[in-house]
# Entry
Amino acid sequence: MPRPSIEDHCIMSVEELYSQATSVALKQHPKQTDKEIRYGTAGFRTKADMLDSIMYRMGLLAVLRSKIKQGASIGVMITASHNPQPDNGVKLVDPQGEMLEAAWEAIATDLVNVSDAELGQKLKSIVESKGIQWSNPAHTVVGRDTRPSSPALLRAVLDGIAALKGEVVDLGIVSTPIVHYVVTCINSNGAYGQASEEGYYKKLTDAFKKLRPEPTNGNYQPAVKFDGANGVGAIMMRRFIELLGPSLRVEMYNESGELNHQCGADFVKVQQRPAEGMTLAPHARCVSVDGDADRIIYFYVDDNEKFHMLDGDRIATLVAGYLRELLEASGLQLDLGLVQTAYANGSSTKYITEQLHVPVACTPTGVKHLHHRAVDFDIGVYFEANGHGTVVFSSAAQRKIAEAGADPSLSESQRAAAGRLRDVMDVINQTVGDAISDMLLVETVLHARGWSIADWSAAYSDLPNRQLKVSVKDRTVVTTTDAERRCVTPDGLQAEIDTLVSKQPQGRAFVRPSGTEDVVRVYAEAETRTAADQLAYQVAEVLYRYAGGVGPKPTPPQ
Ligand code: NG1
Ligand code: ZN
# Structure
């Protein structure tokens, strides 16, 4: 169908633009369903063939968001991350590279749920209620993952941006963290780095290579096996390999099959086994990323082919421990903290507080919560157990670190530690969890410590744990408090969980409604595998009874 020609900006009034947005919606991107869809923790995410109209409207919204931010660039990432290939999704990135502000999540939900005929009116009411200056420019940065559905959905986003006369930089196929990085660079006028995909690769690899003039050290060998989840992470890693040269040898797996199928970070974390399609070798470091390369999980098999996983908790403790050491060695007085969620293994929390003396905060699930808490520290390390996380440095911390590197009143070793801290900071993508940046960070710390993956794994032992899902009629009947560690409703459920937990040595369990799936999740950990499996089952069983379970009842562990 031919696109309606968009007349020149100057001669179109705002009212005409609203009606043009409506007419493009009606003719080219009509609403596909009346079922309500919500902007959740991961933006909009559903089957790709239900997303055309949502994408178009998110293009419109990105323009409004940029205008209210005085023309700052807003990111639009088309991805469904670790979900199966037929799914897709979209999320907006705010000017500092952070996730979309919560109040605008509700506006996004409103905008995609109105009828096509009401669209212009809805745009008008957002503009008026938010006091958006129509004369402000609008800039957007768009990226997409490798899903076959992504190019058509991109077209819809671009039509939305064009309908309201926004400017667009199309990054093509890139990881989610690259979109966050480029948005931050543009809006900081280059202070964060060069605003391009190439600038991103260069910043990370230059800092990484500087930190390891010799690739080997002690038990550390500069080689990893990389599972690209058949997605954009594999494409990015090819470019990294060229730039890394001998400083890190990367063996590639899962580059072009079905996205996330039997591989990738989520598969490894949830199934607790190696990604398929990889040639394993005892003690070889293996790395799995997810479909948009913002999550990472390490794993290896030992001499007895036993699988060992090093997840987000392990990465967080490794990194926080190393940063604490560099702070001590440099004499810098900065407040360092770690942020986790209820899913963090109890052993990791114990290890980091009792042995490394780094304070730990707990927030509800979803990286935006962790990120917001982490920025309260001078240096905040945050990770979800599933491998999504990063480190954020306050501007004051960044300044102090830079000054200390050149402070003549400090000893040479103090200056060297501060200089190292500055280079470590450049390996980190502070804007958002970034699988490849996180990998380079882990490799940096393991190298500095002269550790093999088994040395890293020996730092502490994870408590055996189990996650289950329970389908219920309405998952909103389950409400929680204390960073989701305790439930408030249904009445009586928490008391039952407390009783079950009290019977298991080192037992801990909680239930919470998922933000991304129509299920209630159960988590349990305990001293032994059998006890953890049993506790998870028992909690699922009481949850099913109290919260109106539907479908098959939870089955006892075999
Ligand atoms: P939900 O579905 O709310 O549990 C899942 C992950 C989160 C987060 C979001 C966004 C678990 C238990 N939950 O959220 O950590 O990553 O997806 O993708 O892994
Ligand atoms: Zn992801």
